Amino acid sequence: MKALVYTGPVSLEYRDEPDPVSNADVMVKVAACGICGSDMHAYLGHDERRNAPLILGHEAAGEVLDGPMAGKRVAVNPLVTCGTCDACLGGRQNLCSSRQIISMMPRPGAFAELLTVPQTNIIELPEGMSYETAALTEPLAVSYHAVNLAERALSMPLTAARIVILGGGAIGMGAAHIVRSRGGHDVRIAEMSELRRGVIQAAGTFQSYMPGTADEPAASTVDLVIDAYGGERSREAACNLARPGGAIIHIGLASGTGGLDIRKLTLQEIAFIGTYTYTMVEFRETMAGLAAGTFGDIDWVEQRPLSEGAEAFRELRDGSVATAKIILRS
């Protein structure tokens, strides 16, 4: 099969790789797979969980080639869990004690023509849903889970909350759309890239601003901050923006340390909640929402052939991509 293989920092090769063997899993012919921020971290050599050589990619959709669902069009939940630990039995599969995710060893990813996954990790697509839209289920499920946690943490409904989202990539944009679908209307998106800010502003759906400028909300005035970037500077900004009694939802994994004002979080009782992936129920609900158009127009996506994936990664690294998500088609 053809695959896009991470061969070392800032190096990807589109080349022939051995076909995977399904064994107890099912074989999926991959049709579309999105580039995630975690793929970019690996590409830059910043993710110790993803060592070269490795096929990256986990936001996938395609056609099942074997097993009881052969011929079905499906989306892939890349989070492989045991199903028997306390977390799994309690419906919080994202916290499984032995979780794996495709694109991390020992499970190669989906930037390839073929992929093997457990049958329990595939969900049939609704009638009429394209593979490219289905590939958005995974990143939007991350946002969906984060907004669910935010609603539980807030002392007010989203409809009354002043909300700032740090980062205008797919996770941040997904969170903005999901918040809006639940009645949140005072939503601002902080984004460093002028290109992305232009796309957000042109859509006319959300306000966008450059962090650190006069357009940024005043300190301690924001009810909910969703950090979709997760770096030292964004955590610092989140702590600065959050009001007393407010909440910070931390999704991004740009860096592991720095930026938290623990004194402010403590003295002003600001909830700081880390959020990781989603449950299987949330994955299904996200797909249903996409199919029904619940989250509005997801028009911040572009598509490219898998064979041009290396160039897409280079452009993302250089900041020359305006859209929030690139989907590679096999």
Describe the SSE topology:
Blueprint: E1 2-8, E2 11-16, E3 26-34, H1 37-43, E4 54-55, E5 59-64, E6 73-76, E7 79-80, H2 86-89, E8 100-101, E9 114-117, E10 122-124, H3 131-134, H4 137-153, E11 162-166, H5 170-181, E12 186-190, H6 194-203, E13 207-209, E14 222-227, H7 232-241, E15 242-250, H8 262-267, E16 271-274, H9 280-292, E17 301-305, H10 309-318, E18 325-329
Parallel strand pairs: 11-12, 11-14, 12-13, 14-15, 15-16, 17-18
Antiparallel strand pairs: 1-2, 1-4, 3-5, 3-9, 3-18, 5-6, 6-10, 7-8
Structure report:
Strands 3, 5, 6, 9, 10, 17 and 18 form a seven-stranded mixed β-sheet that branches. This protein has two domains: 167 residues, Medium-chain alcohol dehydrogenases, catalytic domain (Quinone Oxidoreductase, Chain A, domain 1); 134 residues, Rossmann fold, CATH 3.40.50. The mean pLDDT is 96. It is globular and about 55 Å long. With 330 residues, the protein is of the alpha/beta class. The protein has ten helices and 18 strands. Helix 10 links the parallel strand 17 and strand 18.
What is the CATH homologous superfamily assignment of the largest domain? Medium-chain alcohol dehydrogenases, catalytic domain
H/E series, N to C? EEEHEEEEHEEEHHEHEHEEHEHEHEHE
Total count of strands: 18
How many structural domains in the coordinates?
Answer: 2
CATH topology of the largest domain: Quinone Oxidoreductase, Chain A, domain 1
Measured distance between first and last alpha carbons: 10 Å
CATH architectural name of the largest domain: Alpha-Beta Complex
Low-confidence stretches at least 5 residues in length (pLDDT < 50)? none
Class based on secondary structure composition and strand pairing: alpha/beta
The main sheet comes to:
7 strands, mixed
Percent of residues in helices: 25-40%
Q: Per DSSP, what share of the residues sits in E-state strands of 2 or more residues?
A: 25-35%
Calculate Rg over CA atoms: 19 Å
User: Can you tell me the overall shape?
Assistant: globular
Helix tally equals 10
* Overall mean pLDDT: 96
CATH class identity of the largest domain: Alpha Beta
